[in-house]
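My main concern about presentation is that the manuscript never shows what a single data entry looks like. An entry of this sort, consisting of the sequence and the corresponding backbone structure tokens, reads as follows:
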Amino acid sequence: MTIVSICRPVHSPWDQPMDRCFRIFPCLADPARRSSLCLKLALVTIHLAYAGVLFLFDGDLIEKTKKEPWYTVLYLLLFVLTLIQYFATSFSSPGYVVDAMMTVNESNVVYRKAPETSNQPASSKNGSFVVSMEGNQMGRNSSGSNATSWSKLVAELYPYGTTIRTWTCTYCNVEQPPRAKHCHDCDKCVLQFDHHCVWLGNCIGQGNHCRFWWQDAIMILLLITLAIALIFLLLLLLFHSYLILTNQTTYELVRRRRIPYLRAIPERVHPFSKGICRNLYSFCCARYSIYDLESLPTPQEIEEKSKPYTCSDAVTCRCC
């Protein structure tokens, strides 16, 4: 006699409510996004609990806020501004390489179908983008055609003779322009990759580095009573301010010797720097698109940047 047993999977009593919740909120079905949202909620809850404890154990503070309500108004204003800046940075796009590639390819198709509209910026469903090139790259493109494919565009940003394997991502198989890197947390290549911020649950790159910097500045005003957090955020703000003034990213500064196209450049030379003032202006004011691409400097430009500063350079504002 043969006994056949059928094993049924054991279902948790939470499975059905969780499935219903995932159907209502599809974003919670992704474990990475779910953990990121939980972290954001935890940070806001901790701050509210900290403020609540102050009012609970300090009776004089409540009386002071009644007599001088501008304390409360100022606090709420800073708190709301910080929340807006925090969530705007966490949900903003850092500038993914694949999005820039799609924008360039779409503009190339539009140019072929309607040559008279080729000078217009490329558009997408999420808004209007402008993919521009710095230096003499635009001149090189205009000699052939006004619209170019992504592969040709990236190839022109590197020195002549560089193989395609050097700038092709081994994970997502897309051509990376200079300063781009693949983020293993987001599983995407990011333009001007700086780092992946765990507290934001998002990458920091060309598209949201400015928001990240301002977010730290506002957080310093809010957390001034916490000395340890103040010191940490102040150092982070100064560090990223230095990166902005020299037009670098954290990845380029820390992993410089591991980046093939930066190995031959002297340590004290910042290849993408245009001067302190121009770097600051370009970062804060003159960035028309998060998909602006930068070309590597020529050997002559690198030699010029490596020269030591003199008194005449200070007069002519070479550093600016």
